[in-house]
Amino acid sequence: MTDRLNGKVAIITGGVAGIGLGIAECYVREGAKVVLTANHNVDGGKAAVAKFGDDVSLFVQQDVAKEADWQKVIEATLAKFGKLDILVNNAGIGGMSPIIEDLSLADWQKVIDINLTANFLGEKYGIKAMQKTNNAKGSIINVSSVAGLVGLPTAPAYSASKGGTRMLTHATALNLAHRGIDIRVNSVHPGWIDTAIVPAAAKEQLIKTIPVGHMGEPKDIGEVCVYLGSDESKFANGAEFTVDGAQRA
User: Fold this and answer.
1) For the segment 5-32, what is each residue's pLDDT rounded down to a tens digit?
2) CA 170 to CA 92: how far, in whole Å?
3) Catalytic annotation, pick one of 27, 125, 158, 227
4) How distant, in Å, are the alpha carbons of 51, 89, 159, 180, 225 from that of 232?
5) Residue 27 appears among annotated catalytic residues
6) Residue 175, Cβ neighbours under 10 Å: how many?
7) In terms of Cα–Cα distance, which of 57, 59, 2 is closest to 33?
8) How does DSSP classify residue 201?
9) Which of 164, 16, 13 is nearest to 87 (CA)?
10) pLDDT value at position 1?
11) For each successive 10 residues of the chain (249 residues), what is the average pLDDT?
12) How many CB atoms lie within 10 A of CB 198?
């Protein structure tokens, strides 16, 4: 099936590698125009635009934890494509800390800033852009994690940031719905996805914890995000979509 997102414009943070790139590939296949952001992977951004074509894609360098950078991304999106229909808050970092009392405040704050505060900023400026250019209609998708549903003992800051994203999603969905604003907000909770951030040496052991016997692929998350970005999901709001190979079953 194609054209499920025909005519829609989407911002995908962290959209040039891993899960973000998988989402972007699915979105472009379905007819969307995409604005991809990343902070450090500028080469990846250039490669993605070369792959998709500059008529349907744009790369903007962004630190998602900085308010001014969100304003820059929104301005660039509207300047090139004229509106915003979908925002995918995907950018994030890990944060392993087996001993919580050794976790520094600076490391804690970095994870919270990038994984949670950035999602608030994305919602804030994404909603304003949708209200301004899209008749207050749209879809916001916050990429959380199964760690936002059941905390990981070796990643307290990461788990807290992803759990916060889960609650931010639900609260924002209710806030908008109660005000009669047709902007839906949902969260996606990936399990182990085969990306470059998963250490090769750990893959075999991790796969043993997944009931279906293999890791997910970035496009597995992308397909769920297609549904949530499309009009097919018009009654899905404030919901949680877990994609983890039955790991939590």
Assistant:
1) 999 999 999 999 999 999 999 999 999 9
2) 19
3) 158
4) 28, 20, 30, 20, 11
5) no
6) 15
7) 57
8) G
9) 13
10) 58
11) 91 98 98 98 97 98 98 98 98 89 96 98 98 95 96 93 98 98 98 85 88 94 98 98 85
12) 14
